[in-house]
Amino acid sequence: MYRILLIFLATLVCSVAEANTQQTVNEICKQTIDIKFCNGILAKATSPSLKDLLNVTVTEAQRISDDTYFFISTILLNAGNQRPVVQKCVDAYAVLNSSFTDALSLFNSGRYAEIITLMVNISSEDVICETDFNVPGYNINPMIEKNRETKVFVAMEKIIGHMVSS
Ligand SMILES: *[C@@H]1O[C@H](CO)[C@@H](O)[C@H](O)[C@H]1NC(C)=O
Ligand SMILES: *[C@@H]1O[C@H](CO)[C@@H](O)[C@H](O)[C@H]1NC(C)=O
Ligand SMILES: *[C@@H]1O[C@H](CO)[C@@H](O)[C@H](O)[C@H]1NC(C)=O
Hints:
Structural class: mainly alpha
Bound molecules: 2-acetamido-2-deoxy-beta-D-glucopyranose
Strand content: under 5%
CATH architecture: Up-down Bundle
Number of helices: 7
CATH superfamily: Invertase/pectin methylesterase inhibitor family protein
Radius of gyration: 19 Å
Distance between the termini: 43 Å
Number of domains: 1
Shape: elongated
Helix content: over 70%
CATH topology: Butyryl-CoA Dehydrogenase, subunit A, domain 3
């Protein structure tokens, strides 16, 4: 009887913790423009602590901006007469890759509040590069999605950075 009660209590505690985590994640993600993408990133966290949610966010933001910067740089090589507009996207992602890399080092040094300043400092011009150019092999310019994901990462780092440092 006692053991059953213990199991029951343990299950209850676990499901309450899980519900709280999901509530925190929902709270964060509904403040971004892509709830599904945000949820997918936070689902990769190793624990539901805010610090681990921030960890997975800064880690994934850096990884994806690095990939995107590499990708758009290769598009520039054969951009032809689209070169000026592609170059602007390359420049934007050079800045973003460096900002997200800085955010990752700030996280690793426990300087969470500075991540917020860094993200606030990213201008919308950096986040939204013009996408009216063709990318060979794609019907829809993949940079449209990358720009949206970047905006979500900037928002997530601001929101979770604020939660961790307050
Ligand atoms: C962040 O996450 C990585 C990978 O899960 C882990 O190795 C690292 O220790 C974490 N850093 C902190 C400060 O929690
Ligand atoms: C993004 O930034 C990191 C850190 O500075 C750098 O190592 C990496 O090469 C950059 N990515 C690209 C595609 O240049
Ligand atoms: C914010 O942006 C300004 C102007 O671009 C720059 O001088 C400053 O160093 C930036 N601050 C941070 C914390 O990135």
